[in-house]
Structures are given as structure tokens and as C-alpha cells.
């Protein structure tokens, strides 16, 4: 196994971690918006926050570190349009995820904790089903298709 293959496997491990976190967060987000139990909502919101903060962050670090190492070992350059687009998209995705969605989930955790064993309140339900939050989640899922396209097609390379 040569250096490029090791870097590629490290990069792909990061991608799989990010995809796993996206799957967990998407499934949790869809489910939490439909649950009637505050305890279930609390558990799902905590799962979502853990997957995003821990698994997405670990995956992002691996993707970036091994991606940069791959660039150094191949004929690609950081100035290639598809690589620049991928880094820009990654920053936007992390801003939406950690800057908007995770604070929304944290607020949902506090609301669900306050309800205890009670059913989901109208306020919590409204909070969990905000159109902006739903759109942000969909954008994150679509972004993975864009990442995949950028990595496979490598437009301009």
C-alpha cells in the first residue's frame, strides 16, 4: 500500500463518518418532528447533537487532513475549482449545521427536558417543525450529493 492509498483511505473514512452522522441526524430529525413523547424527543435530540458534534467533527477533520495530504501527493492543486468549491461548501455546511441547526437542537433539548414525562407541547412541536430548520436539514443532505459529484466528476480538472 502506497502513501496515496493510505491518504485516500483516511479521506474515505472521514467521508463515511460524515455520511453516518448525516444519516443519524436526518433520521433523528424526521422522527423527533413526529414524536408525541417529550422523553423520546429529548433522546433523539441528544442523539442528533452527539452525532453532529462528535461524529461529523471527527469525519470533517479526517476529510480535511487526508484531503490536503492527497492534494500534496497528486497532480491536483488547492486552486483547482472543484477543490476550492468543496472547501467552500464544507465551510457553509458546518456553518449551517453548527451555527444554526445545533443551537436549534439545544433549545429543543431544554424544552423537552422541561416537559419531563409529559407529551410534546405545541411550543416544542412548533419549534421542531420550523420551516427554516427543515430547509436547513434538507440543504445539508443535498450538500452530500454535491460533495459526491465534486469528488467523482472533478469539474475543471
Description of the molecule:
The protein has helices spanning 3-32, 38-73, 81-115, 122-128, 131-153. The mean pLDDT is 94. It is elongated, with a radius of gyration of 18 Å. By secondary structure, the chain is mainly α. Helices cover 83% and strands 0% of the residues. It has one domain. The longest helix has 36 residues, at 38-73. It is built from 5 helices and no strands.
Number of domains: 1
Number of helices: 5
How many β strands by DSSP? Answer: 0
Mean pLDDT: 94
Largest sheet descriptor:
none
Shape: elongated
Helix content: over 70%
SSE order in H/E notation? Answer: HHHHH
Oligomer: single chain
Instruction: Decide which structural class fits the backbone.
Output: mainly alpha
Provide the low-confidence segments as ranges: none
Brief overview:
The protein is mainly alpha-helical.
Layout of helices and strands:
Layout: H1 3-32, H2 38-73, H3 81-115, H4 122-128, H5 131-153
Features of this protein?
157 residues; 5 helices; 0% strand
Amino acid at each position: 500500500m502506497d502513501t496515496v492509498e493510505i491518504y485516500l483511505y483516511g479521506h474515505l473514512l472521514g467521508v463515511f463518518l460524515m455520511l453516518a452522522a448525516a444519516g443519524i441526524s436526518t433520521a433523528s430529525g424526521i422522527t423527533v418532528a413526529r414524536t408525541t413523547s417529550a422523553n423520546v424527543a429529548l433522546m433523539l435530540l441528544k442523539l442528533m447533537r452527539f452525532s453532529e458534534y462528535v461524529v461529523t467533527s471527527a469525519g470533517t477533520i479526517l476529510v480535511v487532513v487526508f484531503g490536503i495530504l492527497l492534494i500534496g501527493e497528486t497532480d491536483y492543486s488547492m486552486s483547482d475549482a472543484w477543490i476550492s468549491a468543496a472547501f467552500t461548501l464544507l465551510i457553509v455546511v458546518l456553518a449551517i449545521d453548527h451555527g444554526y441547526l445545533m443551537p436549534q437542537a439545544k433549545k429543543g433539548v431544554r424544552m423537552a427536558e422541561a416537559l419531563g414525562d409529559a407529551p410534546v407541547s405545541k411550543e416544542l412541536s412548533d419549534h421542531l417543525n420550523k420551516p427554516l430548520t427543515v430547509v436547513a436539514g434538507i440543504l445539508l443532505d443535498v450538500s452530500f450529493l454535491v460533495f459526491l459529484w465534486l469528488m467523482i466528476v472533478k469539474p475543471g480538472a
